[in-house]
Amino acid sequence: MSYSNRIFIYLPVGLLLLLVVLYSVYWRVQADTLAARLDAANGGEIVPGIIFTFAEKSVGGYPFRLDTVLSGVTFAHRRMDGETAWRTERLALHAMTYGRPMFLVEADGLQSFARPPLEAGQVPRVIFVTSAQARASVILRDGGLLRFDLDMLRPDGKDASQDADPARTFSAARAQFHLLRRADNTIDVVTRIDGAMLGAGYMPALSGELPLIELKGKLMQAQAFEGLQTRTASVFDATEDWRRSGGALAVENLALNWGPVRTNLTGIIELDDNHNPSGALAGPVDAGGVLGTLLRGMFSGAPDGKILLSLQFKDGDIKVGAGATAPAGAAAPAGSAPAAAAPAIP
Predict the structure, then answer these.
(1) Alpha-carbon Rg of the chain, whole angstroms?
(2) What is the rounded CA–CA span in Å between residue 101 and residue 93?
């Protein structure tokens, strides 16, 4: 074989090996940079007021991904009245080393959610949750959140507060939560829970089975959250800016399938000065079915008899109200006050 022929054979192979070596160095630099950034963030504030800690980490995924597995992870927000925290045994973060900035997050093992007590002197509120799969994806654009998707299969939880009723349990076949930022300063919100079950400790009035809960709406004035995305504002400050700028959740449809209740609610939910939900959702529901369930089958109304069901959010409480409406095709009884219309969506 001539010398020139060897060049044509070995040169492409050599170039390929050089590319592999260069890419390996690039991946190693990316992995080491990520590991160093995680070590620097451990125990500090990732955004003002939110402390991030973990016990152990490992970085892998060569050649096309960066896979990070963290153990003993905590995100905590501490205030004078106590701590709000999310803890998980393991958290995995997957990122592609090329293409658009998209991240996949998986939580594994026991998760706990802790909140301050309702009143001073009481014990903190704690919830334990496990699931067959808990996965979230994040897509970024221009340094900010474009889309967030959370999907949990067979979540199973219980009230783990001190001296809590062991029957205070909940579960679902599937739970989803989605956010999509729009160019008009709004964020689309979709939440869906299929096959939910409430334990007897929660004393559900209608039934412990909730086959479907699905909310579709929009967060208005979403530009107020820019400080949170750029890590220049705390969660509290960003929420306060959103509230003061007229921010609200416009609920376009809340589909509720709960015992005899089959309804679609609409309305506006805002935040009051204490950041508690404030507003109302309303929609029609079959009167006979609801009363029949509450009275253990002793009453059954006309199939087309409707009342207006409303959920009132005020001072941290949720109150259920009802107003009389005429059956389909019939006039309202003489002297009866008309039912209030459901709040309009702007």
Answers:
(1) 26
(2) 13
**In whole angstroms, how far apart are CA 4 and each of 10, 13, 14, 142?**
10, 15, 15, 50
How far is Cα 66 from Cα 180, in angstroms, rounded to an integer?
Answer: 25
Q: Is the separation of the CB atoms in 177 and 188 below 8 Å? A: no
Q: What residues pair up with 88 in beta bridges, in sequence order? A: 73, 111
Helix (H, G, I), strand (E, B), or coil: what is residue 55? coil
For residue 222, which of 192, 188, 262 has the smallest C-alpha distance?
A: 188
Is the CB of residue 243 less than 8 Å from the CB of residue 237?
no
Query: What is the distance between the alpha carbons of residues 223 and 277, in angstroms, rounded to a whole number?
Result: 20
DSSP state of 201: G
Q: What is the dihedral of CA 51, 56, 62, 67, to 10 degrees?
A: -40
Could you say which DSSP state residue 232 is in? S
Distance CA 203, CA 48 (A): 39
283-307 pLDDT per residue, tens = 988 766 666 655 555 444 445 567 7
Residue 323 has pLDDT above 70, yes or no: no
CA torsion sign, 226 to 232 to 238 to 244? negative
What average pLDDT does this structure show over 196-206? Answer: 85
Domain boundaries along the sequence of the chain: 1-130
pTM of the predicted model as reported, rounded to 2 decimal places: 0.80
Angle at 182 between CA 181 and CA 186, to 5 degrees: 85
Which residues are registered as beta bridge partners of 103? 95, 138
Q: Which of 160, 134, 263, 281 is nearest to 206 (CA)?
A: 263
What are 230's two structure tokens? 């750029």
Two tokens, residue 46: 């990732």
Give the burial class of 163: count Cβ atoms within 10 A of its Cβ; 0-12 exposed, 13-18 middle, 19 or more buried: exposed
Residue 288 · residue 261 · CB < 8 Å: no
